[in-house]
Description:
It is a single chain. By secondary structure, the chain is α/β, with parallel strands linked by helices. The protein has helices at residues 10-20, 29-43, 106-120, 149-157, 174-194, 202-217, 221-228, 312-321, 325-328, 332-335, 339-351, 354-371, 374-387, 392-398, 426-431, and strands at 60-66, 74-75, 78-79, 83-89, 95-100, 126-129, 161-164, 198-199, 243-248, 254-257, 260-263, 272-277, 281-286, 289-295, 307-309, 478-479, 484-485. The strands form 5 sheets. Strands 5-4-1-6-7 form a 5-stranded mixed beta sheet, sandwiched between helices. A 4-stranded antiparallel beta sheet has the order 9-12-13-14, with no helix packed on it. Strands 3-2-8 form a 3-stranded mixed beta sheet. A hairpin with a 5-residue loop joins strand 4 (83-89) and strand 5. It is elongated.
Amino acid sequence: MLRREPRLKPTTLFEYLQERYPGQYPQVLRTVQRRVRTWKALHGEAPEVMFELRHEPGVMGISDFTELKGVEITISGKPFEHLLYHYRLAYSGWRYAQVIQGGESFIALSEGLQNALFASGGAPQEHRTDSLSAAYRNTGGKGHKPLTRLYDDLCHHYRLRPTRNNKGIAHENGAIESPHGHLKNRITQALYLRGSRDFASVSDYQAFINSIVAKLNQQHQAKFAEEQKHLQPLPPKRVADYEVLTARVSSRSTIDVRCILYTVPSRLIGRQLELHLYHDRICGYLERQVVVELPRLRVTAKDKRRARCINYRHVIEGLRRKPRAFIYCTWQQDLLPNAPYRQLWQQLQADFDIDSAAVLMVEALYIAATQDKESAVAEYLVAQLAAGTLTLSTLQRHFQLLKETTLPTVQVQQHDLKDYDQLLQPDAAIESLPESQPPPQTLAPLPHAPALGDPGTSGHARTLVLRSILAGTFANWRWTDAGVCASNVPCKRLNCPPPKRFPTLTGNMSRSSIPLL
């Protein structure tokens, strides 16, 4: 049976013998296992031979991604899905590890590899990977290069010769697969010793990984110093380890990137941004200046295609001018930064009317954003709600947004009112002029035509007096745009145009009164 099918296992053979020959082979499983093992050693096929390879200094660097299975890392209490990029020099065993978010993408490979090359101080001659889809076209097809264009440019920039192991044969990449286990075992043991798997931020978790890698590299200091002499010098500049997109900021102060809605500062509304997409962040540029940096999110749930990344700090200025918008905003729960603020919002709705609750919550968010006191504001709200003394003015006054203004004391000295008596005696004021001052001179009136109206005397209100004039006086006069001509005959010297605006006064008119001012 073994000659016909060598893949049969001892357990399968033992069960077959018990069914074929009942009662003849009771509890002899170990005997069957021993005899099958002996037969395969004497008559079976020879297993594959593993040859020990000799690595030369500065020749090969190996990259791969690995997952920390069985250990759940949390960032501020939330599960953190990630990979570890692992780079290792085959000769010395020097290694580099980096936390990667978002899968085995070219951006992650490019950033991790370049960081590792600059950390080691040089580039090897060959870069070895498995069949990463970020580096190789695994779909086949004629007329296409096996390398992706981006990965080919990356290797050319650092003068690396790209190679990969055969598909499905993991032991060919044993120089990195076995160190994966050593690294993950050290990380797991360090977490047990630390007593917690929660970290305040991703940077803290990366620092924790760096400390473990540094201890492992201490065992290879001598060989690494020898290998550094054979590494190729690095170019002065890096290859772009990001993807470039453009997006215009909407009137809602948002941009849409890969099915994720992000808020940006409201001052950028209407502007078009150049976005650099890294594996863990998005940097927005306006006229070659960084104006916003956002954490990059990805949709992990299978039943969802879209998500939101809302930061209340970006829109709080506009929200403070429209606090009622908070009540009906579709981002309401996303605008609240954490669970304590969501509980405070529920309590505010229970203790106040909806409008007052919105005003208080928006003002609290404004103070938290402008003064960077998110936790302090939450603690104050909890205390004031428990005491029943929360008002908008007390909230503003506590955080020095509303200051009590004290008016300065002004001392006024009243002067003697008798000084005003001289204003009631005009003659006395004229007599009080010094004798040396000459009397005021009056100019003689210029000759002019008789006034049509008599202004009256100074002691009474001015009146308008109408006088009678002969209508025939204007009978032979003509009014034009250029002036008044002395006759009704067109004047050649003045080149007067025919009348347009005012009609000619003609005809025999009786002596009547024409009121003129």
